[in-house]
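tokens incoming
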């Protein structure tokens, strides 16, 4: 059931000014989340501060086979995706915070649908992680995986990215295939078969994504 949480007095002027539907606004907020998670992933990788499950499998022969087959340089792929998002001139959380810091009260209310939706997305992410991951797993999260699943789940839920062509036209099949094959290698290594009783980190991350998208999708 949809929940009315966006004040129409703020929402209607914003949509009219941007030539958006409520779907377009939700799509851009989802891309704000994606850009934030991708930036976190790239920054962590470049500073060597990442604690990523792929680090374990990167040292195995099996993962070399996966990487060679898919010819994926993960960091380069995500840098390109982030650059594509920035080229679309989406509103990033950095831009939003900078704008609000010097904005008039009127401008702050104009942007309030963005802040409401974005904060709900982050709050849902935080709660979902605590619900789905064990205490030991909370230090190991996958912003790269989450960013792709957010887009895939949003599309599957019916959110249209036609205002953002590079997202609408990319099925991200190469990344999903990489995640799934990596997931399979983990299951072979850990001798786990039942994904419901023994969900992997990738599977748990996909559940976090679905919760975020369902929450945003059902807001009005």
């Amino acid at each position: 059931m949809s929940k009315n949480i966006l004040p129409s007095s703020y929402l209607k002027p914003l949509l009219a000014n941007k030539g958006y539907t409520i779907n377009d606004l939700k799509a851009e907020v989802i891309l704000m989340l994606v850009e934030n998670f991708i930036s976190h992933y790239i920054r962590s990788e470049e500073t060597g501060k990442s604690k990523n499950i792929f680090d374990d499998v990167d040292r195995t022969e099996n993962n070399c086979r996966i990487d060679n087959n898919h010819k994926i340089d993960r960091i380069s792929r995500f840098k390109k995706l982030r650059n594509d998002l920035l080229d679309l001139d989406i509103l990033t959380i950095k831009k939003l915070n900078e704008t609000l810091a010097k904005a008039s009260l009127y401008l702050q209310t104009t942007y309030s649908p963005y802040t409401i939706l974005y904060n709900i997305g982050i709050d849902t992410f935080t709660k979902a992680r605590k619900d789905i991951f064990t205490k030991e797993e909370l230090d190991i999260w996958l912003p790269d995986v989450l960013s792709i699943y957010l887009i895939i789940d949003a599309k599957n839920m019916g959110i249209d990215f036609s205002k953002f062509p590079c997202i609408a036209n990319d099925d991200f099949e190469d990344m999903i295939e990489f995640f799934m094959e990596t997931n399979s290698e983990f299951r072979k290594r850990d001798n786990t078969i039942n994904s419901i009783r023994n969900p992997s980190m990738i599977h748990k991350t996909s559940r976090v994504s679905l919760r975020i998208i369902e929450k945003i999708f059902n807001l009005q």
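note: The mean pLDDT is 83.
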